[in-house]
Design a protein that fits this description.
Number of helices: 14
Number of domains: 1
CATH topology: Catalytic domain of cyclic nucleotide phosphodiesterase 4b2b
Shape: globular
Oligomer: single chain
Distance between the termini: 25 Å
Number of strands: 0
Length: 301
Amino acid sequence: MSADNSQFAIIGVACDYQITLREIIETIRRISPSHSPAAIQLGFGLVELAFEGRLPGYQNLQAPYHNRCHTLEVAVCASRLLHGIHASGIILHPRTIDAAILGALFHDSGYLKASAENGGTGAQFTVEHVSRSVAFVEYGLATIDGELRRWVIDAVLATDHRMLPANWNCASAESALAARVAATADIVGQMASREYLERLLFLYFEFREAGVGGFKDLHELLEQTMSFYQTTRKRLFDHLGGTVDYLARHFEAVGGERRNHYLELVDRNIAYLESILLEDRERRLHMLKRGGIVGHALEMM
């Protein structure tokens, strides 16, 4: 991969709850300086307690791919999408802002294991993780405004890649916008990551644990990621209405240059994956060097 990591630095997300929370609140204040951060702060506090194993009734988040870093990447991306929409002249309902961020935060909470659920990393819940996430929202956010909670659930449900927006049953047009933001951020937030290709090895192990995908080995998952990418682009631009394009307006507003760094980085990752797949299988993993992830993943085999 190119030694030029300037774009990765631009979208870089610290895998830290409080740093991420501060960045999101700063971005939201670009939209509405008077917007109350209370609901978002509540969500972050709950996610941190749960993911770190300090929430009564739950174990810490153990899924290797759908982990804390993935969740925070998606939440930051959602906040930037919201700002890009605002920068395009679209007025955002305050509840849309909160629902999009909270939906991003809780969209994978279904991978959490309850205290009584033994065995596995939580990846065994891959197929039903969205419905489990909805249940966690209903439990964890029981104290917030009921309409906002419904909008958050709409956003969580929208991250199910199997669901087309035509089949969504959102509470309102404003709720549907929050849902599109969360679903879009879930895709590009992870695929633009500096370590996306390396993390695919963790995704393979999650699929293997869940018994889904039918991949014979991790190389087959890498190979099929190319077709997944084409399916993903269709979802982004056809099904989700090109909401991803608003990211360019965010970067124009904060950096003066209208570029969609997320999509550019997704394309860079996919181009590098294409070059990897031209190599013999024995060499492929040697080309994935970021974060020491490959070594960790191989220990899981």
